[in-house]
Amino acid sequence: MCFAHLHWDFVWQRPQHLLSRFAQHGRVFYVEEPFIHHDQTDASFAHVEVKERQNGVKVVVAHLPAGLSEEAADAVQARLLTAFFAANTITQAVFWYYTPMALSKSRHLTPVLTVYDCMDELAAFKFAPPKLRELEQELFRKADLVFTGGQSLYEAKSLQHHDAHAFPSSIDKDHFGQARTPLPEPADQAPIAHPRVGFFGVVDERLDIALLGQLADAHPEWQFVIIGPVVKIDPAELPRTPNIHYLGGKDYTELPAYLRGWDVATLLFADNESTKFISPTKTPEYLAAGKPVVSTPIRDVVRPYGELNLVQIAANADDFGQAIATALHQTKDADWQTRTDAYLGTISWDLTWQQMVTLMQHRLQGKG
């Protein structure tokens, strides 16, 4: 039973990589945030919808009427979950949390094992609920294991839980390695001139839009391709120049074809509270696609990728521009490619998943 703040169909990332693997060995239910129907006010309207996804993952969504207080909405969801457990004969469940906020609807249920896979410092994100930190402390008390999405996050969370383990962003090498093979150019990217400097990911408060604007102004000869949904920020705030191309969100399966057409890939992250603990999955994904990478000094990119000289690190627009200029010739550097592939050979989502499973099995055996 996974309790998540991210929609399964939003962006394919850590939860989907891990839970689609669990689904090959048992039932997986992915409980999303509720959907509020503003045209409904009847309390009896509340119900659960189940959608089947990759490898048989079942996405569970509570549909609620409008007008409920936060406490009432939590109580309705708790009742719906209790009924759902009974209807599906769920008696020995592992609870896997991505958000502490889900405790409000699930703390009355008794799992055989509780895992907190802390992929982000959610309390630092824009519009984070005030009680998130308090609920996280409750989740630390309940959790048998805490996994973190990066080394920086591990250093923070290991002070709060006795059994925390760092599992930085991993890689589906075969998927992104397709970008090194002939693929048809996506129609919306095909007319864009080269050199192309790309970014994919959620376009939100973590993206350094000022840096993007400065780079585009300083280098009209480069085309900046931005792929991803715009969330939590006003699209009107995004820099608009002829050489910035916002192509919107794309399906995970489409990303290699877009990557193949880039000359340099970037991690254009701002230096703020929301990026202090991030460990971007896209770092190894860009590298697996064979693309040179330039990043702002995100700690979990600097260490290990910057220190191993696999990714260039730049903190301001001038340095970032110079790093891109260097990266445009990096694909001819056979030594860089060899060292990059050797490092990528040490990580995979299969390996991450198996290491997590081993820890879970040990904890279950310890419980008898």
Keywords:
six-stranded parallel sheet; Glycosyltransferase family 1 protein; 34% helix; alpha/beta; nine-stranded mixed sheet; Rossmann fold; 368 residues; globular; 13 helices; 15 strands
- Helix % is 25-40%
Rg: 22 Å
CATH architecture of the largest domain: 3-Layer(aba) Sandwich
Topology order in helix (H) and strand (E) letters: EHEEEEHEHEHEHEHEHEEHEHEHEHHH
The dominant shape is: globular
Number of strands: 15
Low-confidence segments, given as residue ranges, are: none
Continuous helix count: 13
> What does the main sheet amount to?
9 strands, mixed
Name the CATH homologous superfamily of the largest domain.
Glycogen Phosphorylase B
What is the CATH class of the largest domain?
A: Alpha Beta
N- and C-termini, Cα separation: 21 Å
Mean pLDDT: 94
Task: Please identify the structural class as seen in this structure.
Answer: alpha/beta
Strand-residue proportion: 15-25%
CATH fold-level assignment of the largest domain: Rossmann fold
Q: How many domain units?
A: 2
List the helices and strands and how they pair.
Elements: E1 2-3, H1 14-22, E2 29-31, E3 35-37, E4 47-52, E5 58-65, H2 70-87, E6 94-97, H3 103-106, E7 113-118, H4 132-142, E8 145-148, H5 151-157, E9 164-166, H6 173-177, E10 196-200, H7 209-218, E11 223-227, E12 244-248, H8 255-260, E13 264-267, H9 282-288, E14 293-295, H10 299-306, E15 312-313, H11 317-327, H12 334-344, H13 349-366
Parallel strand pairs: 1-2, 1-6, 2-5, 3-5, 6-7, 7-8, 8-9, 10-11, 10-13, 11-12, 13-14, 14-15
Antiparallel strand pairs: 4-5
